[in-house]
Batch of 2 targets.
Target 1
Amino acid sequence: MSENEKKDKAPVKEEQQYSLNDDRRVKVLSPGAMVAKRFFRNRIAVVGLVILAFMFLFSFLGGLISPYGEDQLFYRTDLMKKEYAGAVLNVDFRYSAAEGQKMSSAVQAMAVLAIQKGETAFEYGGVDYQVIKEGEDFYRIALADGTTVAVTYKDVIRSSIEGQELSFDLIYNALKAYVGGGKTFSVDGKVYTIGDDGVVFENDTEIAYISRYALNAVSPDVFLTRSFRDQLIEAIENGQEDFTFVNENGEAQDFSVEYKPDVKNWVIYRKQASRVYDMYSFPSKEHWLGTDRYGMDMLTRLMYGGRVSLIIGFIVEAISTLLGVIMGGLAGYFGKWVDNLIMRIVDIFYCIPSMPILIIIGAAMDAMNMDPKLRMIYLMLILGFLGWPGMARLIRGQILSLREQEFMTATEAGGISVYRRIFKHLVPNVIPQIIVSVTMGVGGTIITEASLSFLGLGVRFPFASWGNIINDVNRTFVLESYWFIWIPAGVLLLLTVLAFNLVGDGLRDAFDPKMKR
Amino acid sequence: MRKYIIKRLLLAVVIFFFVMLITYTLMRCLPTSYIEQVARQKSQLPGSKSYDEWMAQLRAMYKMDRGIIAGYFGWLVDFFSGNFGDSWNFTIPVIEEFNKTVWISFWMGLITMFFELIIAIPLGIIAATKQYTKTDYTISILALAFISLPTFFFIALLKLVFSVKLGWFDLFGLIGRNHEQLSALGKFFDKVHHLVLPIVTLVIISIGGLMRYTRTNMLEVLNADYIRTARAKGLSERKVIYHHAFRNTLIPLVTIVGGSLPGLFSGALFTETMFSIDGIGYASYQAMIVGDIPFSMFYLAFISILTLIGNLISDILYAVVDPRVRLA
């Protein structure tokens, strides 16, 4: 047997040696310790106490531990897709009227009809036209005397030089050569060559190009360069959805291509990065509970919100308890007209509809654009001032019964001053009731504050409060899709208030000397 | 008894006077944006008086030109002669808006009270008779949880589960989209359907308090000597609890329930607002946040009167129901 164990056993033996009526056999507990013992035996109350401890740590330490500030805003870069251009595979005949000629839409329709039927002539408005096939999907419309009115084609020819129009003769000859597979043609004595990919050169300078795709920029001041067109058409033909284009200044631009089957065209979007508030982002490693509608970290907001809710709860209860104890103490001790007067005031306060009054004051403070900090202080004062009658009634009732007891007669006989008699002898006897009432009152105050803040009439931005965090649920899309905005705040609020009530209940039972268990 | 009632009535009148004096003072201190707004609008009409003249006229009309005390007496006279004025927010006479909204609130309150009584009282009695058992703990914790439940959060949860996820109910409103096409019976059931969630909310948030109250009172009664006597003379436990104990528990219950009867008219501000039900609570909320003084004053006076009547009823009932109480 080791020495340690011997030492442990020694006192046990000593205890056994006490005689039966020895005082040392009885463990004496102070009233406070008795209450504590009874309280801790109540498992539900202890659960409440643990929740409260957690809430205090969460709110007061959490704010310090959290790497983010109360109203720190977060940003993210968002890719904004902006419509840039449209592309269409040309399947319709397009027209170019010869200089000095007109090609009305009715004539165009007749021409298409004639082409589709394979006819070589048609008549419209008393004028005879002939349709001359010059190549695949390329026709010339001429009058009966052979004057060319227009050409119609499916391959689209466009100028490569910004701001320069192509003449009719150039279009006609270029297309004729292109459709016919020719490499060169000449207009007005100038010789042009056509490359494999439909590019038209004049002395090695590119002046136009021919393609089946019709491309148009969405914004009229954007000129689609040829290299861009080439890359775009390549992307379309390969079925690519994204491509990067490097422009003449060497800047890389991201584009995405989307085919719209209903209108049979491609829409080209330009992707642009922009910095936006990181609103309503889902929980992630950086933001464990996501971000709120301003782009602030939700978890940090909850911590600071808890701080505000708890501080307001305690300050309000402190104010109303102080007022209540003074008024109730005076009423209970003096009785007669003092009691009557104070109790009538209490009656009046009981009758004041507090929630409507708070809403009205909140709306008025809104109208005055009051500073949020000042507003919070007023809120605490008003809530405290509206809350004292309950406490006063409780204290008065207790004191009325205590006043008649012998120890009070003794204090009177002993010549102790009135002030000391009330506050040293009467009030301490009421302290258990005060503690219970304050504990439950804090819970109630937190709900009131949260309700007001929920209506937007209590604690305001930039300060966080659980109530004003939940306020966002008024937007239906938040209710439907962003649970992390309002459910955590609501759960914390519910748990805190519940914990205050559980602890208050536990304390009431623990303070009650008649309690059997 | 008669003397007591008269005394209490007189006291109630005095309390009402001071409560409304406080409320009126508060209202008068609000920024009077409404009057300024109307005066500005009217002064801009062609051939109209100047802004200042309109302002003076409107202030006189709404008794804003005299001191607070004089204005208050003016308001009191108007109130008791049934002249409640026109609501600024709803632009119809206050009494009309009140008539339009109060009944739906009343029916909601009545149905809620019915469910509250048939749920809370039995549960409270069960908890008391099985003190310190699992049933008791469950009921007590549930009651506390319901008391601790923030109304607006609970409503949001209900909406998420029953409106968004399950799609059983609409998110807002008292009537559905195709209400007008329905038959009379269909219209009635449409309204009932839309009132399910609000009433569930009201019942849940109100049963906690009554449950605890019933349990506490039942426990007190169960510890009384006459219950011990009843047990000692060999009555069955059923008889002891439901005949001897329950009847005595009813005394405080009748008092508190009787006292809360006038409250049926006062509306449920949060529930009605969040479900957009045009009850008196929602109407008063709209009026209060825009500073509609005539309607707000009327509503506050109405609520104060209800509270006073409630207190009176519960005090009188206390004396009537409990033969041991003799009023001096």
Target 2
Amino acid sequence: MCSVTSKMFEYDPPTKEYATDPKIISRNVKCLVCQATILEMEKEIKKVDPRKKVEVSGFRMDSDGFSEMKSVQYSKSETYLTELMDTICKKMEDYAKARHKTSRKLLILKMVTDEGTMNPLMSAVDFVQDGDLNKSLEHFCLEVLEDHEEAILTEFMKDVPEKNIDHIKHKKESRKRDRSPDVAVKSSSRFEREREKDRRERQDRHKKHKSDKSRKHDSRHGSSRTGRAANRDDYHSDSSDVVEIIDPPPAPIISSKPPPAPSISSKPPPAPIISRKSRSISPIPDGGAGDVLSIAETNKLRAKLGLKPLETNSDTTAQEPKKDADGLKMHKDEWGEFLHKPADNLADKLQAEKLREKFRQKKEKRQIDNKLKTIKGLGESDDFDDINAWIEHSREKEKLKAEALKRAKMLEEMDEELASNEVSRPSVRKGNRNNYTEKNLRGLKVGHNMESFGEGKTVILTLKDHDVLAEDEDELVNVNMIDDERYKKNTEVKKKNPNQYGYDVYEEQYDEFGEQIHRNILGKYDEEIDGIKPNSFSIGETLEDERAQKRRLLEIKAKLAGKKLESLDEPSLKLASDVYTDDELAKFKKPKKKVKKLRRKLKAEDLLPLSGSAESSSKDYGKRLRLHNDHVDTDDVVDTDFKDIKIEEEDNELEKILSKTRRLKQKESLITKSLTSVEASQDVKMEVDSDDDNGEIASKDNICLNETAEFCRTLGDIPTYGMSGNRDEDAGDMMDFEQEHFEPDEPVEEKRSTGGTWNSVNPDLEAIVEDKSNEMIEVAILDEEPDVGSGMGAALKLALSKGYLEREETNRPSNTRMAHLQAKNYSIEDKAYGEDEKFQRRDRYHSGPISEFKEKESYRPNVKLEYIDDSGRLLNEKEAFRYLSHKFHGKGPGKNKIEKRLKKNEQDGLMMKMSSTDTPLGTLTMLQHKQKETHSPYIVLSGSKQAQSTSITKHK
Amino acid sequence: MIEITCNDRLGKKVRVKCNPEDTIGDLKKLIAAQTGTKYDKIVLKKWYTIFKDQIRLCDYEIHDGMNLELYYQ
């Protein structure tokens, strides 16, 4: 008989033997655990507030379309119970197996009471040593619950479960009893008694509850409230009962049974409260201010508003989640139904994996074993223990070996025989590669032009690579020849002018025999449109024929060479003469010779000996030059027939040079400061002019004297001259030229060396010089501009010096000007041949000086950077840098510097504005006034300074 | 069916049962029936969101037991 106490479950062994038997039968332990579990569950259920209720819909609709809602105690709801059953086995951790000290009865004891104190019964028992720390109790609990889950659930959920719980227990026990005859049950009569007692009590409670329910409810809330109050009463009464149970009288005698009634009465009254249709599902709001309509009222209202009735089945919180066919839990809320797929059980997975692994290993092992079975190990002995057997075996082996050898030899011999046969009859066996002959090659294509194979040369051909899937014929090629061809083609392509499209009339139209080549219009695109013409031939009989045909063709062509279809009345052939006829000469055009050549001839060294030789022939330089040129020409030009033309040309060149010298002289005349130098230049000029026309000299060099010039001559050099800075021309240039060309000219040299004064005069030229001197003076003083008449150049010069025109020197040599110096067709592309494509692409526009913008080949910008300061003045390089620098550093020049610069600028400006015909102080006008006044060509400078000054100031 | 509490903080607090598929307009009509104000004078808010009439409660994710602020215009 199992006795139920809260603390201890004891088991009465049926016999004394068992009591003393230290062995514990697990079935007995299980029975004890089962009792303890049920008790624990009851205790837990009792702890739940019986007022707590959940609504369970009955899924039945009445005539109005309302389903009945069933209000069930939470403690009896399935959800709670299942939850409880999941956790209840944890309680078993507190239990331990023990034996009563005196009776040696097996029992399980809860070591700690619910209040947290030690169980007072502990002293009365001996704990049983357990290897796994009484884990087995929990396992038993789990087992029990699993096996009888449905039964337990239904029993606990029953409205009047009190009786039946015991009943289950009883049933279980009896079943166990049946199975285990050694477990004795004390008596069922006692149990029956207890059950009767329970029934009575429960009936009483039922009556009470019924009377509660039958009471008239005036308000909905009131009713629920009263119901709850009643429940609370029940609960209180229950709890008092529980207290009794939890604190059992510490029974010194273990066999003493506590009255079972309280445990049974601990069940709350199960009467289900079936809610009426009109009842609100919502409890009264705490604030009490809520204005709540019932579902029915709401539905009525909704009907009036034209809305569909409320979906009342959505309250699923208390309902057991539905399970669908797959056993997945169905969850439904107001959004719809959801299937919750359970998470994968990792442990299961792991186990499966382990099993699989094990199987795999086994299998492998089996395989290996099988394999090893056939092989004999080193240590394993052979079958033949007998020495005779062994000998026999080895002999056999040897025999076999010898036989194999013999056979191999025979085969070899046969092979040889066959091979020798084939040598004599090559066509017998075609499979032999030794006999791969010309015949096999017949019809094979060779991917090269026939001409590319020289006669008698050996060229190794290989099969050309082609697509495996393509069904082309095999083709023989030589890799090197392919490369050569490609290179040739590339060069051809490169030769073509990329800018020229269309039909080129002037393209070479004749082949080597002078015959016209027939060309298609836009023939150059033939390759692109029709594809590259296969340049190949096939090995075979046609080879020779083709060759022969070609040869024949060539012969015909050669015969026809030079023959043209022309009219018969062509002029008869003449003997070719070594020299050109006059008409031919007229037609003949010789490419122009470059000037450079002549220039070289005019070097001083060249002139020197000649001047010596031609000394006798007067000072006529032109003549001399011409002579010299003639001389040179005879050296240079072989064809004497063209002498005249040549001379003409040379004369042109000569004239060029002369004009150049003239120009230089003009320049010189403007620049040279001293009278003598001017004179000398004049001299040179005269001489140069004499080259053209000697007779003109006199008329050309007429000198006009005027008063001013005469006057100024007496004044000598004007001290201010040259100070203004605009008169210093580059005399060096001049000097160079002079040195080059006129070194032999001694008189000039002399005159130049005496520059500065004009007193010393070459006696040869004295007359002329005297004549000219007056003009020279004029030039010296008013020098800049009077020469305007001499040519455009002079005028421009003047304009420049006066600032009317800007100097060109700011124009730096630009790209355009130097264009002719740049290489036109230079490229190092060939060097980069075969280099990385990517690299080339990247460097298309960045590969240094050789590359140009392909798109803007003709674009040569003339870039001029001009800087202008704040006042609008153009800055030169240095100034511009200074300006930028100041700007950059944010620090201007000092005050003094600024003043200095301003002053300089001002002076420059003044200089620009200065009159060209007068001194800066206007002395000339003053002078002229004075002279006009006095009617004399002179003024008297002698006398007191003051008088002079007054006289001048007067005229002011 | 869900239940929504609407509270203007001036003394009116109603609990309305409705379907999640109802629109805010329907809810307003129900509230109007329960409180006695005209439905077109009612403004429902949650924080700063004014609920619009033609949108369903479930689209606003109004769940069971939620509190809405009741205003009048």
